[in-house]
Amino acid sequence: MDQKGKGLIFIVSAPSGAGKTTLVRKVMEALPGLRFSVSYTTRPPRTGEKEGIDYHFISPGLFRERVEKDQFLEWAEVMGHRYGTGRVDPEALKSEGADLILDIDTQGAKRAKEKLTDAVLIFILPPSIEALEERLIGRGLDPPERIRIRLAHAKSDMEEARWYQYVIVNDKLEEGVAELKAIIVAERQKKRATQ
């Protein structure tokens, strides 16, 4: 955690099924001083997801109202649903000195980076598109047509990895967790060295 009251912001992106959520949760358990910014979405909760922990699940009308009132740092439409990062959440946590993790898709990450120029961008890749397909099928959350759509989006997202500062290939969970922890620790040390 930054000692001058301005924490670091880590923007983490990945195609659906790459294991980003699991990596982030494991790293948050292991490293103190990290907070997770809970995004808003218009999609319905998946099995096991909890309001206020995984997402804030809101109606399309309420989402539109928040957009009109400029209450999002960034927002994007992905696969027919809208996702957004609340404006107050990251700014409040950053001012407290917490290091914040934002889970944002590639569209939103570009928009957020324009406003949060010092944010650290990290992209999580699956080991291959075939491995990603196996993971998506294995999750059992989507019918085959939806998986094909997710894979097409994944290929497009993976092309965006080139403008991120860090890329992690999430092949083995323990290695992916270790790499994400190493990035966060290194960025914390770099920040400390410049104070």
Report on this model:
The protein has 195 residues and is of the alpha/beta class. The protein has one domain (9-193): Rossmann fold (3-Layer(aba) Sandwich). The chain is built from 7 helices and 9 strands, in the order βαβββαββαβαβααβα. The strands form 2 sheets. It has a 5-stranded parallel β-sheet, with helices on both faces. The protein has a 4-stranded mixed β-sheet with strand order 4-3-6-5. α5 (129-139) packs antiparallel against α6. The mean pLDDT is 89.
Strand content range: 15-25%
CATH superfamily: P-loop containing nucleotide triphosphate hydrolases
Largest sheet geometry: 5 strands, parallel
Strand order of the largest sheet: 2-7-1-8-9
Instruction: List the helices and strands in order.
Output: EHEEEHEEHEHEHHEH
Shape: globular
Assigned CATH architecture: 3-Layer(aba) Sandwich
Helix content: 40-55%
Distance between the termini: 13 Å
Computed structural class: alpha/beta
**Poorly predicted runs:** none
**Cα gyration radius (Å):** 16 Å
CATH topology, anyone?
A: Rossmann fold
Total separate domains:
1
What's the CATH C level?
Answer: Alpha Beta
Q: Based on DSSP secondary structure assignment, what is the total number of beta strands? A: 9
Tell me the number of helical segments per DSSP (H or I, 4 or more residues long): 7
